[in-house]
Amino acid sequence: MLEKDNIPRHVAIIMDGNGRWAKERGLPRTAGHREGIKRVKEIMKEASELGIKVLTFFTFSTENWNRPKKEIDMLMHSLNDFLDKHIDELDKNNIRFKVIGQDRPLPERILAKIKKAQDQTKDNTGLVMVLALNYGARQEIVDAAKKFTSSVLREELNLEDLDTELFSSYLYTAGLPEPDLLIRTSGEMRISNFLLWQLSYTELYFLKKYWPDFRRNDFQEAIKVYQKRERRFGAR
Fold first, then answer.
1. DSSP 8-state symbol, 62
2. Average pLDDT estimate for 47-62
């Protein structure tokens, strides 16, 4: 049984292994991504029921543009389909939808639907579902540095004002708690340019299952492991 008073506020997930899952079954990579989208819906529902406040999925990195065009087109189509079919359901379930990452070169139609979805759900008070889309953590830190520098040049702030709390307010994740738990599927044990600033004191959990095989019981097991750990935040 999970300890209800020790549920992580923010869980971040690197959904890895869709392509390998498909390859081992003699299927195209796109089949793995389609199955992976089903897991997103399942884990989002479970997180909401557990009382988790924020759930962040690493959906598409800035490096993913180097993948085959057919695969990118399928991913963009799936995102477009999700925005068309599921935002009303999220809104009905009091879930707030948020996207972090750079706008360009995402298609204009996708950007318009993202804005509409975020506006529609902005006042919801339940789970915050975050998609890291066209996201790279190093670029996020560079963008934050540029924003702060612009504030100094406009004489709104002084250089001496900068500390870690202020810098965090310039990140894409401003206003969100830092992740308590990071889950990565597929057996890879890397952060892969994901939330580098925010993961400073996050508990890391790696498992060998591919993302399409990751189910609610696996999610609960990750939280059980998290609850057994002692978080010291560098204090001792």
1. G
2. 96
